[in-house]
Amino acid sequence: MLAEASGPDDLWPGEDLPGAIPARLAEFAHGRSAARQAMIGLGFEPAAIPMRQDRAPIWPSAVTGSISHCEGACMAALARRGDYRGLGLDLEPRRALPPELWSTILRPEELYQINDLPLPQQGLQALRFFVAKEAAYKAQYAVTQQIFDFQTLRILFQNQSFVAEFCATVPPFEKHFQFVGRCVESQLYCAAFCWLPIA
Q: Which of 96, 91, 126, 128 lies closest to 111 in space, CA to CA?
């Protein structure tokens, strides 16, 4: 859900972001505000959402979720912990991804798909791959606690929906394990949401 306007003064005790510049702190506060609104929407009392050393949110025991913020917007997605193992959300301004980043983010088969598109569409499609991989990474991180590069996940688009596939074993997920997500766009933003249901 989208956050209502908030600012650093709306941070709750324990929600610290040491050394952050004011703009970054405001984004952080907006994201926490959105997450608390989502808690209320699920029927829970709002609570503080501190940050672990790896920067992942520490959720109340009854929920799991994901927060994303960028220039001008933030979103949060939450669910009851018994319904999902992990949720992932990414939100970015709808701008073409610079070509110098493509080989880092895209696998060869994904690059091939980009190069088949008309030139004006290539950078935006690269952005869609990026937000989908970021959302998928966040969803799996709730389970694996493993850091890996963009080449570990392959994204297979089916219109606005996508499948995220592991290209290597990342315990407990075997190579070729798949899970699903969805991209949405406006004129200003591109977002992706991914989920891992309870097995």
A: 126
Q: Using one digit for the tens of pLDDT, what is the confidence trace for 37-93? A: 999 999 999 999 999 989 899 999 999 999 998 888 889 999 999 999 999 999 999
Distance CA 79, CA 87 (A): 8
pTM score of the predicted model: 0.91
Burial 142-160 (b: 16+ CB within 10 A, else e): beeeeeeebbbbbbebeee
**What is the residue type of 120?**
P
How far is Cα 10 from Cα 6, in angstroms, rounded to an integer?
Answer: 6
- Name, in order, each residue with C-beta under 8 angstroms of 16's C-beta and a sequence gap of 6 or more: 50, 51
Please list the alpha-helical segments (H only) found in the chain. 22-41, 102-105, 108-115, 119-144
Counting other chains too, the contacts that 26-29 makes at CB distance below 8 Å and 24 or more residues apart are 27/69, 27/70, 27/74, 28/69
- Answer yes or no: are the C-beta atoms of 63 and 174 closer than 8 Å: no
DSSP label at residue 16: -
DSSP conformational letter for 188: S
Question: 148: which strand partners?
Answer: none
**Alpha-helical runs (H) found in 42-107:** 102-105
161-166 and 153-158 strand pairing: antiparallel
Specify whether the CB–CB gap between 84 and 193 falls below 8 A: no
